[in-house]
Amino acid sequence: MSGLAGKCALVTGAASGIGHAITTRLEHEGMRVLAVDLKPDSGGPGEHFEADLTTREGNRAAVDAALDRFGRLDAIVPNAGFQHVAPVAEFPEDRWDALLSILLTSPFLLSKYAWEALRASGDGRIVVIASAHALAASPFKAGYVSAKHGVLGLVKTLALEGAEQGVRAIAVCPGFVRTPLMEGQIPDQARAHGMSEEEVLEQVILRPHAVKELIEPATVADVVAFLLGPSGGAFTGTPVTLDQGWTAR
């Protein structure tokens, strides 16, 4: 065990991909986890809770459910998200609004509603799953890149406000991870770039990686477990980057 046994966490986007891997790993470490998703995986890890995190009510309900079930909350891991690929001139405004709601406003609301519980924990952690796109941009992803840059600013602010209250905030910034979200981008990227799907994977998705490999969800989960544990206590207000050398350029 890594010092996490008996603690309680809330993870969003927990039904698949990175969120599923994080929930699995934290349960393995002895944590109780509220696994929040718009469509929870009834056979997956964690204690399932359905919530629409594009709404204030959904974010409030998720935090309230965690506190009702666990009686405490030591960590939140805002991870839920989606992607939309389109040129700026053609970018749907409703997709822009939805991206900012789920990727930026939801982490803010979860942090706001959970703040007192995290402070009462004495060692509260906020670990937002951001992206290398919090540090670098790519074409055709205006909403996603803008939201991820914004969430890094939110993490820095949370860290400063939480420093004297026992609350730490970190942004985990992976490169491309082998998830349904990433795989779902390939057809849109192929259309945007006028390429085949095979060419998109090799020439677009893996192009920014110095090491031409996708990252596995379990690797991101390992990093999150470390950051939530005792040795992660020195990290706050910073991006933790695992991007196969993307941002080294």
The gist of it:
The chain has 249 residues and is α/β, with parallel strands linked by helices. The chain has helices spanning 17-28, 56-70, 93-121, 142-162, 180-193, 197-205, 217-228, and strands at residues 8-12, 32-37, 47-50, 75-77, 124-129, 167-174, 238-242.
> What topology, given as strand order, has the largest sheet?
3-2-1-4-5-6-7
**General form:** globular
End-to-end distance: 37 Å
Main beta-sheet annotation: 7 strands, parallel
Mean pLDDT: 95
The total of helices stands at: 7
Assembly state: single chain
Walk me through the structure.
With 249 residues, the protein is α/β, with parallel strands linked by helices. It contains seven helices and seven strands, in the order E-H-E-E-H-E-H-E-H-E-H-H-H-E. The longest helix has 29 residues, at 93-121. The chain is globular, with a radius of gyration of 17 Å. The model has no long low-confidence stretch (mean pLDDT 95).
Furnish the topology, listing elements before pairings:
Layout: E1 8-12, H1 17-28, E2 32-37, E3 47-50, H2 56-70, E4 75-77, H3 93-121, E5 124-129, H4 142-162, E6 167-174, H5 180-193, H6 197-205, H7 217-228, E7 238-242
Parallel strand pairs: 1-2, 1-4, 2-3, 4-5, 5-6, 6-7
Helix pairs in contact: 1-7, 2-3, 3-4, 5-6
